[in-house]
């Protein structure tokens, strides 16, 4: 390229830099930044954010520290993307003290966290088991007129299912609908799982019916959740009926579906034989 008389631009360098970072070759990436000035260029915030994003995902503090130092030397200021990367890093390493300080700093500087930033924080807290803290922050930001999205709700719904707090799942689904969000397949699948765990199979089937009416195809895993709940309650005939519905809707049962059906048929015969023996 240079032999032909073309001088690399920042866009060229940043493309190569992105490739190094994608390969997690951080040494080459940092070395390339030092080559920018040889061709009359200077690394920009896109360059630094590319390295920062990769380093944060790798939980590699050394390049993060290097980027923060170089950004200051270059007279640049971190933007929303930079700070979202750092929030993700702090969450991954469990450093929530610095994480919350950074969020407060963003707000004071007039950088209201984006929905992506907000979801990164929620996910990080839930992954570390701090579901209650995530839920409080969720409501705190809502009071600041910040609008969560469907992913925000799904993060919390799945987290509450994991800690077996199904009443909060119901509250979140109700709140989601009041905010005029349309539940997606993840929301519905999670809600059905929660309802089945509570033993409310009728409500779970109503959610399945709502999905069909709204053009959201239930997956085989969603059906398996309901089938398993039916089996636990010895509702063997209902298992057969539900599998007939699956076939009519074009949902192909998987190995787990057939396993439940076989066990149900075997258990049904056993129960029938016990009934005959008792009479």
Automatic annotation (TrEMBL):
PPR repeats: 9-43, 79-113, 114-148, 149-183, 184-218, 219-253
A single GO molecular function term of this UniProt record: mRNA binding
Keywords: Repeat
Entry annotated with the keyword Transcription regulation: no
Coiled-coil intervals: none
NCBIfam families assigned to the protein according to its UniProt record, in alphabetical order: PPR (TIGR00756)
Name recorded for this polypeptide: Pentatricopeptide repeat-containing protein
Organism: Acorus calamus
């Amino acid at each position: 390229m240079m032999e032909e008389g073309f001088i690399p631009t920042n866009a060229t360098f940043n493309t190569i830099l992105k490739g190094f970072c994608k390969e997690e070759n951080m040494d080459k990436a940092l070395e390339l930044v030092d080559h920018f000035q040889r061709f009359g260029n200077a690394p920009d915030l896109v360059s630094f954010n590319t390295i920062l994003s990769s380093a944060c995902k790798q939980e590699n503090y050394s390049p993060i520290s290097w980027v923060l130092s170089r950004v200051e030397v270059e007279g640049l200021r971190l933007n929303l993307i930079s700070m979202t990367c750092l929030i993700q890093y702090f969450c991954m390493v469990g450093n929530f003290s610095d994480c919350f300080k950074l969020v407060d700093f963003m707000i004071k500087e007039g950088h209201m966290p984006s929905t992506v930033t907000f979801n990164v924080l929620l996910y990080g807290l839930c992954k570390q088991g701090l579901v209650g803290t995530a839920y409080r922050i969720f409501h705190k930001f809502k009071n600041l007129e910040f609008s969560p999205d469907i992913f925000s709700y799904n993060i919390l719904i799945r987290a509450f299912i994991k800690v077996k707090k199904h009443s909060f799942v119901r509250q979140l689904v109700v709140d989601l609908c009041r905010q005029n969000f349309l539940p997606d397949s993840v929301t519905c699948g999670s809600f059905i799982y929660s309802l089945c765990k509570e033993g409310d199979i009728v409500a779970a089937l109503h959610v399945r019916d709502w999905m069909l009416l709204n053009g959201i195809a239930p997956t085989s895993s969603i059906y398996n959740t309901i089938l398993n709940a039916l089996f636990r309650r010895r509702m063997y005939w209902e298992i057969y009926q539900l599998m007939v519905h699956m076939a009519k809707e074009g949902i192909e049962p998987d190995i787990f579906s057939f396993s439940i059906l076989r066990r149900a048929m075997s258990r049904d015969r056993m129960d029938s034989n016990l009934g005959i023996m008792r009479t």
